[in-house]
Amino acid sequence: MTDTWPDLLVLQLLVGVDDHGGLGAAARAAGVAQPNASRAIKSFERRLGTPLLVRSPRGSTLTPQGTVIAHWARRVLTAATELLDAAASLRAEQAPELTVGASMTIAEYLVPGWLGELRRRHAEVQIHLQVHNSTQIFELVAAGACDLGFVESPTVPSTLHAATLHSATVAHDRLVVVVRADHPWTRRRRPLTVAELAATPLVVREPGSGTRTTLDVALIDHARPAPLLELGSSAAVRTSILAGVGPAVLSTFAVEDQVRSGELRVVDVDGLDLGRTLRAVWRGARRLDGPAGELVTIARRAPASPAGSGAGTGSPR
Does the model's pTM come out above 0.85? Predict the structure, then answer.
């Protein structure tokens, strides 16, 4: 009887008889038909050379020998369950994971499409997304808390060593001056000057955001008044503009729908370039491989931005 191992199902049936008081209930608990359960028990009895069940019109119960075998069967099933749990844990440990950080605008308007494409290609990859402003994403990547970051800021924070990070251009964006449709600037016959924009209190993003940094760098040579409001997301800034709080400078991604509907108007500024590069950043090896490298490739090959600028091409460097 030692030439083959017992089937775990028959052990489950024996334990089920002990737990539920009959073979019918044990079969239902195991998800098998009772005739099949009865045949399995009889076959096991023949292999062991001892009766395991007392069969009667009122049902089946364990013999004394069956009670002993059920006791040991319970231990075998417990060990088998532990084995399967351990195997599942090993699979989870081996499953590839990717932690992505993205600045607000990129996270809201671009990353969902990129991650969706990566999931379609690699459903086994466990993806975790963290959303912060660009400065915080730089810091998380530098600290190793994110495998890959996407940022809008044109500069690396001064607190970090740029040499420890690698980057690749994934897309291009443009910031625009936007106002509500009834704002006086919509009736101007000439574009704003840079000095006029710099002298105007604006609704702005919080310090550290890529949008705020791009604007501050563009107007660095001009004295500026305090902001009307500092807000933590492009959506909040957009809502404030629509409420009539004042003008703002936002990504074309953030205002595309409202500009198309006429709720917001773009105001031209003479001589001001607010184009910006959206980048992937990472630390470690210069060449980015695996799911992170493929995500960068997906981002670079995505459709052009609303500003009309296409994404970069090629492989991550």
Answer: no
